[in-house]
Structures are given as structure tokens and as C-alpha cells.
Amino acid sequence: MQEKLHLNYHPGTDPKSFKAKIVNIEDNYLMFDNSYCFPRGGGQPGDTGTIKIGHLEEKLLETLPGEYIKHPVDSVEHFNLGDSITCIIDKLNRNRNAKMHTTQHIVSALAYDIFGAETVGNQIGPEYTRIDLKFPHRDKFNVEELESTFNEILSTKAPVNVYDWNRNTILSHEKMRHTNFLQRIPRSINKLRVVEIEDIDLCPCGGTHVGNIGILDDLIIKKVKSKGSGKLRISY
Ligand SMILES: [Zn+2]
Question: Residue 9 is part of which domain span?
Fold first, then answer.
């Protein structure tokens, strides 16, 4: 598995362009010897952007995960093995996803702390994000309370920190959330990335985040929809 270099960069906003060599071409995917692109995962869309080779510019479609990170383009015939390319990640798209994703951490944490609701699914998007919540008492959910608590929390300007912790530290930490998925990660991987929003949230996560919650936009919940017994889908 190729190392996900985006993990080494926090805050995950304003990603830099990078140079790489093409090491494989498969279907319409280019694989590079290194990549700082975020590949789709954990409900967050992959990076998009531009791939430059000489004077040619080709649109980079949504980056996908794989043994090697997959960089899809419309026309792979412009590229050959061993070519040196420059990849320019779409900053606006990445920054929006990082903001939406960090917002999701806070909303999920507050939904649990206020209403006891577990996050059972999410789909991040640069314009809209949805979170599926499972409540012990769904009728107690209150949109205004969630929005106003969120918006008050932004004024604390809490920093977002990342750590590389081992499995035991993560599983034994009393404030750690969302550890169920660790069972699906091979035991051979011991160190995992943990994301902390100080005094608000602490959980293992490989997504991209802002460095300080002060730059997030106010939460505006656009839609609340029933998703079956005890569950609601909220969109913001
Ligand atoms: Zn995250």
C-alpha cells in the first residue's frame, strides 16, 4: 500500500502542488511514485485538480484509493510510464471538504453529547454534507439546540491537533470516540492517526481537517429526514 502522504500535512487545507513520476497506468487511472492527493474515503470525496506534463494540462478527476492511489483522467493516451508530471490539487475543493469534514466531527460529537445519538453514516460534500444519526429518543432531537451549540463552540477557536498513537493508547483512552472500525484495520498497522478538536472531540481519522475551528462557517441544517426507527438524516 502506497503511503498516504496527505496524512503528514496538517492542517489539511491549501495543499501544495507536487511533482511525481508515472509508475503505472491502468484503465483511466494514473499511478505515481508519490502522491499528496487525498483519495476518497471515510465519507470524504477524493481530491480533484490538474495534471501537467510539458505544456499539456489534463483534468484530474476524483482521486480514488487503492494499492497505489488512483488518479483518473479522461485521456490516459497523453501519458507514458516514467513521465514526470506536476499535480496541482484543487485548493478550493480541498478546503471546502476539510471544513465540511471538520464540521462533521463537531456535529457528531455534539449529537452524542446532547442527544446520545451515534453517527452511523456520513457523506461529506463541498456544498452539502449529510450525517445519519441513531437516537435513543429521536423525539428529543432539536435542530435549533444543535445549531446554536455548534455556533457558540466556534467562538472558542479550538485548535485541531493530530497525533500518531498506537492501538492500545487509542482503545484505552477514556475520551476516544468511534473506535469500532479499528477491528477492520489489520493488526499489523499499529500506529494510527488520531484527530483532536480540543475539549470537543477525539477520534481516529485519516481525513483532512482545518487547523482551527474559528475558520468554520456557522452550522445551518437544511434538512432533517427520517431514516427508519430511531434514525434521522441531517443535511447541512
Ligand atoms: Zn476527520
Answer: 5-89
Q: Separation of 193 CA from ligand 1 center, angstroms?
A: 10
Distances (CA, A) of 155 to 96, 126, 127: 20, 23, 23
Q: Are residues 98 and 57 in the same domain?
A: no
**Is pLDDT at 234 greater than 90 in this prediction?**
yes
Q: Looking up cell 476516544, which residue turns up? A: 176
CA of 217 to the centre of ligand 1 (A): 17
For the cut 90, the answer to whether the pLDDT of residue 179 exceeds it is no
Question: What are the backbone dihedrals phi and psi of residue 20, each rounded to the nearest 5 degrees, phi first?
Answer: -155, 165
| The pairing of beta strand 201-204 with beta strand 191-197 | antiparallel
pLDDT number for residue 106 = 98
Distance 164 CA to ligand 1 centre (A): 14
For position 12, which CATH number holds?
Answer: 2.40.30.130
Q: Which of 63, 89, 115 is the last residue of a domain?
A: 89
Of the chain, the end-to-end C-alpha distance in Å amounts to 34
Domain boundary pick from 89, 112, 140: 89
